[in-house]
Amino acid sequence: MNKFTHINATSIEEAVLLLQRYRGRANLIAGGTDLLGKLKDEVMPAYPEAIINLKSIPGLDFIHYENEMLKIGALTRLADIAAEPIIQSQYSALAQAASRTASPHLREMGTLGGNLCQDIRCWYYRSPNNRFPCLRKSAGRCYALTGDDRYHSIFGGSVEEGCIAVHPSDTAPALIALNAQIKTSRRIIRAQNFFQVDECRTTILEDDEIVTEIHVPKPHGKSAFEKFALRKAIDFPIVNGAAAIEVQDGLVKTARICLNAVYVIPYKATLAEQALVGQPLNISSAQAAADATVSNALPRHRNQFMVEFTRALVKRLVLACQ
Q1: How many helices (H) and strands (E) does the chain have?
Q2: Which residue of 47, 60, 102, 259 is 20 to 30 Å from 308, comparing CA positions?
C-alpha cells in the first residue's frame, strides 16, 4: 500500500471542505471494506493523496422511525440494520439484503452508505496493479467485451456501450424496491436515480458530495429480497433483487422490482412490474413477470446461464411477497 495522508473529519462540513481542497485526489472511508482492498491491490486509476475518515464524525450511525418514515444514518453498520426489529418486521427486503451482504465480520464493519457507493465488480477492472487499464479508468477499451464475460451485464453496457461491468450492491435493489431516498450533503435523491456509470464513477454524486442519510417510507404490502451467489457464506451476487408488492381486493395494485449484478447499475424490472399490476398474485403471474423480465435480455457468449438464474429469481421474489 502506498503512502497517503489520513484525516479524521469532525463534521460533514469539514469533510466537504477537505474534498474540495484535494479536488478529486482524496477518498472517503467509513467501514473501509471496499476501499482498503482497492488500495492494497492498487486497482484505482490514480492513488489518492488523502483518505478522509468519516467514522470520526458523530451522529451518522442511527436508525430512527418517525412519522411513518425510516431514517438510517449513512454510517449505520449492515449488521445493525439486519438485526433491527422494525426493519425486520416492516422492511423485510432491506433486512434480508443487509443480512446477506458479505460475511458476518464484514457486516460488522461495512456501512449502508459504503454499500451503496461501492465500486463495480469486474475481474479486469479489479485485477491487481492495474494490469488492465480499462475504459472505467479513463483508458481506451473494455477487456470483457472480447474476454471472459461470465459475470457481466445481460442487459447491455454503458460508457457508450463500452463497459459491461455490473454493480454488486445487495442493499441497493432493496432500497429502490422500497422507494427510498438518499440524503446527501447538498440534496435528496431518489434511490433509483442515484446510480450512473461513467469513467471512475458509479453514482451521480459530485466530487465534494457525501451521503448522510437514507429515508425509506412505510411500505404498503410485502417486500422480499433474494440472492444467488456461488457461495452462500460470503460472495458477491451472480444476481440479486428485491420486490415490494401491494395487493388490494385480490389483485396486485403496485409492484416495484429491482435487480442487481445483471446490469451496469441496479436494474428496475419495469416489464415485470407491468405484467403483475392488475393480476392475482400466484404462480402463473409470477412466471409471467419472470418471463417479462428477461424478454429483452442481451446475454453474451459466456453468461447465457444468467438469464435463467434471473428468471428463476424474479419468480421466487414475487411469490415471496404473497
Answers
A1: 11, 14
A2: 102
Question: How many angstroms separate the first and last alpha carbons of the chain?
Answer: 50
pLDDT tens string, the chain, 322 residues long: the values are 889 999 999 999 999 999 999 999 999 999 999 999 999 999 988 899 999 999 999 999 999 999 999 999 999 999 999 999 999 999 999 999 999 999 999 999 999 999 999 999 999 999 999 899 898 888 778 999 999 999 999 999 887 668 999 999 999 999 999 999 999 999 999 999 999 988 888 999 999 999 999 999 999 999 999 999 988 767 899 999 999 999 999 999 999 999 999 999 999 999 999 999 999 999 999 999 999 999 999 999 999 999 999 999 999 999 999 9
Nearest to 54 by CA among 102, 22, 13: 13
Q: H or E stretch including 80?
A: helix 78-83
Q: In what order do the strands lie in the sheet with 188-190?
A: 63-66, 69-73, 211-217, 181-184, 188-190
φ and ψ at residue 90, rounded to 5 degrees: -110, -20
Q: Give the position of cell 453514482.
A: 203
Cross-sheet strand order for the sheet of 5-8: 5-8, 50-53, 26-29
Q: Which of 263, 295, 288 is nearest to 164 (CA)?
A: 263
pTM over 0.90: yes
The three cell numbers of residue 154 are 445481460
Cβ proximity of 128 and 211 under 8 Å:
no
Angle, CA 64 vertex, CA 63 and CA 65 arms, to 5°: 130
Residue with cell 462540513: 13
Question: Can you name the residues that pair with 127 across neighbouring β-strands?
Answer: none
State whether residue 211 is helix, strand or coil: strand
CA angle 96, 98, 101 (to 5 degrees): 110
Decide if 314 contacts 257 (C-beta within 8 A). yes
